[in-house]
Amino acid sequence: PSTPLSSRTDLLFPSQTPGNNKLQRASEIMRHGYPSSDQLKHYDNYVLMYDRRNRNAYWVFEHLTPAQLDRDKKQSDRTKSVFLEDASVHPYFRSTNGDYKNSGYDRGHLAAAGNHRHSQEYMNQTFHLTNISPQVGKGFNRDIWNDLEKYVRSVGRKSRNLYVCTGPLYLPRKDPYDGKQYVKYEVIGKNNVAVPTHFFKVLLIEDNQGEFELQSFVLPNQEIPNGTKLRNFLVPIDSIERAAGFLLFDRLPKEKLRSINGKKI
Amino acid sequence: PSTPLSSRTDLLFPSQTPGNNKLQRASEIMRHGYPSSDQLKHYDNYVLMYDRRNRNAYWVFEHLTPAQLDRDKKQSDRTKSVFLEDASVHPYFRSTNGDYKNSGYDRGHLAAAGNHRHSQEYMNQTFHLTNISPQVGKGFNRDIWNDLEKYVRSVGRKSRNLYVCTGPLYLPRKDPYDGKQYVKYEVIGKNNVAVPTHFFKVLLIEDNQGEFELQSFVLPNQEIPNGTKLRNFLVPIDSIERAAGFLLFDRLPKEKLRSINGKKI
Ligand SMILES: [Mg+2]
Ligand SMILES: [Mg+2]
Predict the structure, then answer these.
(1) Longest CA span, chain A
(2) A47, B29: Cβ pair inside 8 Å?
(3) Which ligand sits nearest to residue B111's alpha carbon?
(4) Does the interface ipTM go beyond 0.85?
(5) Phi-psi sector, B5: left (phi>0), alpha (psi -120 to 50), beta
(6) Are strands B212-220 and B257-260 parallel, antiparallel or unpaired?
(7) Residue B60: beta bridge partners?
(8) pLDDT tens profile A109-160
(9) Cβ neighbours of residue A32 under 8 Å, at least 6 residues apart?
């Protein structure tokens, strides 16, 4: 079960190799098992990195096109989809429907179900609990986060390609009593599923000229007043990268990027 | 900088591959960069997985032998080692000496410097900040944690092979006010280096008959009264695995395991 699935990224992108001596020594040091902390999962229409410590994704990537989002090509019925515990995750690290029950939180999608309406199977796959995080229901999952998902689709319908990365954050806050910074988040259920303090969504939009625009949002996982504008949640992408622990879209040729968070560059 | 170093684990252990269709689709979805959340680092005499979100290791593995720990073969001087920021970690995710300064915490070793006295270079490498976590100094790093490190070496001197895995934990606690479980930890410095709530150390001891004994410890990162026995901190290994998010020594043939935490099996 500790097979490093993440190792297969090298099939897509070659990477650096440590010297032979170090690899030889590593094979001795690691003789009795090689743990992997994250786990890469390839679904049919999205890619996800699972954080086995927090029982949430690290990130979920989607690639949306006008064809995929065409309302006339809808081939699915959301009521036929059910939330699925992911048997490919070791039971120690798997989130379950039971963890969410009576927690007070919604089972919130990271890759939005509504982005995958062109196939019942693809939509069903977004209901894997690996793609689900505990989200505040009223005022968040059912409201502004849903608005953000609709906005993403409206962008996708008029772009040549739209790449979307979505994930949870666990942001520090200053304690007013001692002035120190703390990360604090709830964990739910017997599997201690982390409740993220925030969620991010980053859109890389390719127009019909092959030029790119970047938009990056961070929303707190809490009830947000009706009517709050999405643009209030635009943040510099590096603030997401630093907090999340990874770089986003770093292979994009920088000279093709024409706009960031609505500002021309 | 997002090159998935972790991908190279496949050089050591082959792993499962998703189908070609999914890999093909993934190469489209991930066209503009493939984030990796953890980072595998091969040093000359230990192996480490770095948690770029918390700026601590996930785990550090060592392999100790009587020859390596022989006091007559000491070839190093600890005062010649300096704490090194690890330039191979992207600056967004790198912990620095400045982060520790005035934090109130020691720069605590995960792979103990004293396990690598047979080579100045090997000892120096344990001073990379990737191998360092913020530890309470008095009553912990300078006392019971140091005692545990000495105990490890005493075991290593009389075993054919000793495999040691060490790492941080961020354990939930019940809030007495609302009865819910929360993970809470401080972060220090401008890079928000996480202060683990606990540390684990797991020993896999191979005797001269090729049979194995497992000992697994979890200690809270706090001042612990002098004279507290190390055996009070023995815990079932699965409690570490569940909290840490990975399996330990899972390739060990179970029939060769003769003792767990001092109990024959
Ligand atoms: Mg939702
Ligand atoms: Mg120490």
Answers:
(1) 60
(2) yes
(3) 2
(4) yes
(5) alpha
(6) parallel
(7) B48, B166
(8) 999 999 999 999 999 999 999 999 999 999 999 999 999 999 999 999 999 9
(9) B163, B204, B249, B250, B251, B252
